[in-house]
Amino acid sequence: GENVEQHPSTLSVQEGDSAVIKCTYSDSASNYFPWYKQELGKRPQLIIDIRSNVGEKKDQRIAVTLNKTAKHFSLHITETQPEDSAVYFCAAIISNFGNEKLTFGTGTRLTIIP
Amino acid sequence: SAVISQKPSRDICQRGTSLTIQCQVDSQVTMMFWYRQQPGQSLTLIATANQGSEATYESGFVIDKFPISRPNLTFSTLTVSNMSPEDSSIYLCSVRTGSDTQYFGPGTRLTVL
Q: What is the Cα gyration radius of chain B?
């Protein structure tokens, strides 16, 4: 089955700087890659996703890049703010609207230092 | 998106008892899932709730311990049976919409004494 590795496990950045979280996946058939943000005591929330037919997607300060050849994808947060502090999970799935299951990474705890 | 509610939001239970968690979504969804999340850990899939048939369980999870029902396209229950302190965790309902996007419910925080 699919295996997703996520790095780093913890990340501290100065407010205003950029943060990058990286994930690798094992199954080349995976074609959908969502990112979730989980604040303390809250549910995981989908913040951005990318499908394998594009290499990059951006939404304001958040962007995701995908390298299918190398089988890795990354989350980029620019101009970080204190409210970006949370745990971030990447995931991968072979999506063809069937019964496939998301495989999650182990999470990255991001701390923004004021 | 989908609006998902779970009941109860939290509970404290005695060892040996059972707790049923309810998940309600505001629209028909293609798939419903149940996850467990230990403190500081990632999300572990317990099972896929199938409408009108038996749930599909992941390795390490069995129907006798975690019976699941899904009588229609918007509702599912997860029962944690014969609980022990090791079952203390957050249990999350999750749904996948027709666009293949997956959302999570607010979770149920279970403490077993």
A: 13
